[in-house]
TrEMBL record, chains A, B:
Its EC number is 2.6.1.83. Keywords: Aminotransferase, Pyridoxal phosphate, Transferase. GO terms for biological process: lysine biosynthetic process via diaminopimelate, diaminopimelate-aminotransferase pathway. Pyridoxal 5'-phosphate binds at residues 72, 108-109, 132, 186, 217, 245-247, 256, 291. Pathway: Amino-acid biosynthesis; L-lysine biosynthesis via DAP pathway; LL-2,6-diaminopimelate from (S)-tetrahydrodipicolinate (aminotransferase route): step 1/1. InterPro entries: Aminotransferase_I/II_large, DapL/ALD1, PyrdxlP-dep_Trfase, PyrdxlP-dep_Trfase_major, PyrdxlP-dep_Trfase_small. The gene is dapL. The lineage of its organism: Bacteria, Pseudomonadati, Spirochaetota, Spirochaetia, Winmispirales. The modification N6-(pyridoxal phosphate)lysine is found at residue 248. PANTHER family: AMINOTRANSFERASE. This is LL-diaminopimelate aminotransferase. Residues 35-402 form the Aminotransferase class I/classII large domain. SUPFAM superfamilies: PLP-dependent transferases. It comes from Winmispira thermophila (strain ATCC 700085 / DSM 6578 / Z-1203).
């Protein structure tokens, strides 16, 4: 019988969101009248910006006429979108990125999952803990880890993000080949100052490592001192790949568009020490395994870079960040230590208790749902994540409830 | 320095379509007045069906209002589309496929490329020759082959599709783990009779092999005796995965939607002989590495199954098949042996000469572009592929030209 990829057997079941759903449903059954507010989910609630809707419709109309119909597009995306990104997200901010270095895709999840295809199966990987599970799970599937034991996969270098290091772990002492970094961080909400990113670029250059930098939440950075791209750090073009998404920025979680920047200077080597362009390898991977993003979706994404699109996107982000401020103040008022919520849509809260226990108490006393930090990794224990992606009235109501219920005493 | 996946180095450059473009451009430079007709490309020319356009617009409007906005959808696709496919493409034709066995994706290219993720790295692969390059290239990248030598990758079982076997190669004598089959075939245009598919199902059951069946062109089958799905063969549910696409059927090459059927009975085993569900593994793979297809695109695809959608899709297919008939008759009139063009949009023509030489003669004498068969594999030498995806007037003009130029003497 055909043999399976046995590395899949090492995967621990991704029970986090299904366990949350199960517990919420159990509570609902015994409390059918309860008005439950979900503050745990990282999905947007505001509709697509009007500029995107307009461009989307226009492109659908192009698909309706033979003269303007579009068949197969370039696997790496249409030049109109790659140019708009290079100008709007990089050159206009003083960062030199060429349109040819940008690859359009259907999601930062796909790209952060697939990029490891390019590395040898024995590449040494470092990831942060707590972490977005895709980075680690895809490396498990590819056989770059040992088994899961005591909350960790063997053979992986974990970088604990904890209050003691302000959620900014130092580069490891040992040499690794590939490092996954995410800032503004999911789930901790921490942001990376310039000198912190510079430490990593220096580490990567010294050890010939590649940094896979997930910047899916960069649009939420409001502090002008915080870099929005790893390429703001000198020397990063040789060692860093950057992942970006329209999901949270422009509400594309259900529309699906993202991009990855692979500078032409990024190199890896083969077993005989010869250099190879990571850009060429990613192009080969994408052109072999992917057929590009839907044309109307690419037109909708390009509208983000029009003046109207920019104004609408900024308004949406401001709305979510006001949600974050409201909820964060309620938490601070109760005496909780919080990270994030200022330059990030996530608020990471130290509960001082088992994170599932806190989840349960919060659900039962306030009918508010959070995400237990333990679900993101061992170092997430003792924390929960709240998300600012919600309607204002729900956030205000959730803030009122926790302030009343927990007033005077943290649970 | 981070080490690369060295299996990428084994890949031969995919020069086929770039070489065609280069030769066409060279010809254009010296013959700027030439009216060149491209009969080689497998991309549709008719616009999206009206029913799809209407549903597409409506879904974009849903994305414009908070009350109807859709964020993250299920990774495996929305139930409305999976149900429509199960009913429209299977149950209504007497084939039992459950909606839960259908996974929606952005393309059959992605799915046929990614499915090999589920098998062990030493799985023995069989592919047809000539072949759609994605099947073999993705297995090369995954390390399941040796080096490329004399037109073949070592370690792969090739199944030559040649006139001697009516382009229907027998299952190999040896045991393989995974077989890629494509019918109606790209590039040969051959279709698989029921008893031929039954041979393969029997082989797969006997050797515990998995058949990866690419049915991207099934909608072009008009002969009621030819199975449109591998699941019409008893016993296939235990051993076959089927890939389908809206690309050629409904003109989605630039809109991007496809699906893969993984029956719940399909199993693989681990090193200790325990069985695992291929359906569960594919779900794990897709939910970890993919975030689903754009919601408006899924709505557009579902409209294919409305009465209007069906009528419009059938009209488009009839248009392309009339193109195929016209061009095929011109070729037959010149004395060429042709496969395909009756239940398939591709016509595979035995040229009797080197396929690049024929390409060049056809370009220079008739200003018609074909695809040299050698580009699809060693057994494609001596053949060229013509595609029916074009506008009627171009096909008629190309047919006229070859009939005039080659009349009385094959080139």
């Amino acid at each position: 019988m055909a043999r399976m990829n046995e590395h899949f057997l090492k995967l621990t079941s991704s029970y986090l969101f299904s366990e949350i759903a199960k517990r919420v449903n159990t509570y609902k059954e015994t409390h059918p009248e309860a008005d439950i507010i979900k503050m745990g989910i990282g999905d947007v609630t505001l509709p697509l910006p009007e500029a995107c809707i307009k461009a989307f419709h226009e492109a659908v109309d192009e698909m309706a006429r033979a003269e303007t119909f579009k068949g197969y597009g370039p696997e790496q995306g249409y030049p109109f979108l790659r140019e708009a990104i290079a100008e709007g997200d990089y050159r206009s901010r003083g960062v030199e990125i060429d349109a040819e270095e940008i690859f359009i895709s259907d999601g930062a999840k796909s790209d952060t999952a697939n990029f490891q295809d390019l590395f040898s199966s024995d590449a040494k990987i470092a990831i942060q803990d707590p972490v977005y599970p895709v980075y680690i799970d895809t490396n498990v599937m590819a056989g770059r880890t040992g088994v899961f034991r005591n909350g960790r996969y063997e053979g992986v270098v974990y970088l604990p993000c904890v209050p003691e290091n302000d959620f900014l772990p130092d580069p490891p002492k040992e040499k690794v080949d590939v490092v996954y970094l995410c800032y503004p961080n999911n789930p901790t909400g921490a942001v990376a100052p310039r000198d912190y990113l510079a430490l990593w670029v220096e580490y990567a250059r010294r050890h010939d490592a590649i940094i896979l930098f997930d910047g899916a939440y960069e649009a939420f950075i409001r502090d002008p001192e915080i870099p929005r791209s790893i390429y703001e750090i000198p020397g990063a073009r040789e060692v860093a790949v950057e992942f970006r998404s329209f999901s949270k920025t422009a509400g594309f979680t259900g529309t699906r568009c993202a991009y990855t920047v692979v500078p032409k200077e990024c190199r890896v080597k083969d077993g005989e020490g010869r250099f190879h362009s990571l850009h060429d390898l990613w192009f080969r991977r994408q052109s072999t395994k992917f057929n590009g993003v839907s044309y109307p979706v690419q037109r909708a994404a390009a509208a983000v870079y029009t003046p109207e699109g920019q104004a609408q996107v900024h308004a949406n982000i401001a709305y979510y960040m006001e949600n974050a401020r409201i909820f964060r103040e309620a938490l601070l008022g109760l005496g909780y230590a919080c990270t994030g919520g200022e330059n990030s849509p996530y608020i990471w809260v130290e509960t001082g208790t088992d994170s599932w226990e806190f989840f349960q108490i919060l659900l039962e006393r306030a009918q508010v749902v959070c995400t237990p930090g333990a679900g993101f990794g061992k170092s997430g224990e003792g924390f929960v994540r709240f998300s600012a992606f919600n309607f204002r009235e729900h956030v205000e109501e959730a803030a009122r409830r926790i302030s009343t219920v927990f007033s005077g005493a943290t649970p």
